Amino acid sequence: MDTEWIGAVKLDFDKVKTLTAQQYSMALREWSTTVKIHKAAQGKVVHELRWQCDIGQYCLKLRQLTLRSASTKAIRVVLKQCKELKSLEIMECHNIAIPRMHESLALEHLQMHSATQLTMVSLSCFLKLCPNLKSLTITMAKDVTSLIHTTIASHCPLIEKIILSQCGVVSGPYLSTLLYAACETIQWLDLSHCDSGAITGFEVAVSLPKLEGLIFDNLRIDGKTLNYINCPNLRVISLQNCRSLTDEAIQEFILSSPRHCLRVLDVKNTNVSQVTVEAIELQCVQLTHLGVESCRNLPLALRQKYALQAHLHPSAYERVTLATNTRINIEASTSLCTSRNLLSEDVEEEDGDYEDSSRHIDDDIPIAYSFKRQRK
């Protein structure tokens, strides 16, 4: 086939059956001008390292790369050779150590899922070479603590989106440093399910006018600290399992601004009361999803009412990080994944908010580690 006249923009290897390493390399050589390469589907490739290194050899104009898995060596070759690379996403990073680079990178988006081998020092050194970084997603990196917040604050002035989910300890002083530094740019902040002591240390209120998403699930944050964060334009708020928050603190935070933009509020398994829920409903006129499952201070009928409301008003903004009372080992997930890969079969909803037989799940919501659950 004569390929000289075809100006390939994207090579999506998920559209074809699994090839050999030699065939992948041939495709890279034939369409060397491609700017996007996507291979997220599972499938064993013998000598996979060989063809992944060939990405750096042939595709010098590459701008976006998505791989299910890779090696440290292959990533180093790609980063070194592909000077225009803007986006790098690796879905399974169990055996990857982030490479040590020696010159600035053009990266704007970095995603490393299941990054169990990622260390604090290596990530910090890497981010210092990414002055144009706008989006950072790291999951399951227990060695990555709030110390990384200071690195982001100092070396990533354009940062807009931060997802550090299931990572190391979150510390109030380091978090406040990040928010003060990124107050004019940050649009999305997800620290869900990180290890944390009591998050304190905010001394001055910080205004985040562009923040649209705040995901603090399962963090030990109190009302005083939460109310230091002024974010009037939030569309999504998730405070699942934040048991240290009192009902008064939740009410004060939610009602501290008009909340004209708020679409999704998730306070599953918290101390929220019926009075607060009704006040929120009156003030947040755009609200379509209110998650109150497992809130023991609320009557069952009220919990079921809001579950039904969410079912009848599907929204692209519905983002629920992890189901309440569900123990999950997130395994090699991707930013484009379905709830079937995340929701355990043995969800325990003892309060009767759901019946297993009524669950229906929509596919492919493009949100990092999120899923949409149709409710009864």
Automatic annotation (TrEMBL):
GO CC, any one term: SCF ubiquitin ligase complex
InterPro entries, per the entry: Leu-rich_rpt_Cys-con_subtyp (IPR006553), LRR_dom_sf (IPR032675)
Source taxon at top rank: Eukaryota
GO terms for biological process, alphabetical: SCF-dependent proteasomal ubiquitin-dependent protein catabolic process
PANTHER family: F-BOX PROTEIN YLR352W, PARTNER OF PAIRED, ISOFORM B-RELATED
Protein name: Uncharacterized protein
